[in-house]
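Form 7-S
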Amino acid sequence: MDVDLSAFGASSLTTDAPVPKDRPLGAEGIPSTYVPARNTVFLSLALAWAEALGARDIVIGVNAIDYSGYPDCRPEFIAAFERLATLATAEGVGGATFTIHAPLLSLTKADIIRKGLELGLDYGITHSCYDPDAMGRPCGRCDSCALRAQGFAALGIADPVLRR
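Output:
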């Protein structure tokens, strides 16, 4: 299923608006990279699929520690959506409970990177850049690049994607 979040506009990730660069980590306010209700949309689709399959567990990779202030990455949002899942589904009204698992929610970026390394992830083939160049290389200056760099620095290792 294709989900085109650009239909909602209002984000520098889904429009031609410039992605902010060189913002101080932890800057106040929600940046223009916020996509309106993105995780609500994703969880709604996952909930519909889970209900259709008879599944009761949904996993999402949001993080509330090292993030840019997006409201739908907070523990309160995850808890509220879990309650909504019971109210908004036939299975929930019938007594079933849905659990939203967010295993990265309370981890620092360094913790997330460490876990990926333990699992054998080759970070040299990944990036999390909001504004990669035409060759797919990370910009090194957006919030996501800054958070990733901070995570690798906290572990005392070089980010292998920067060696490409």
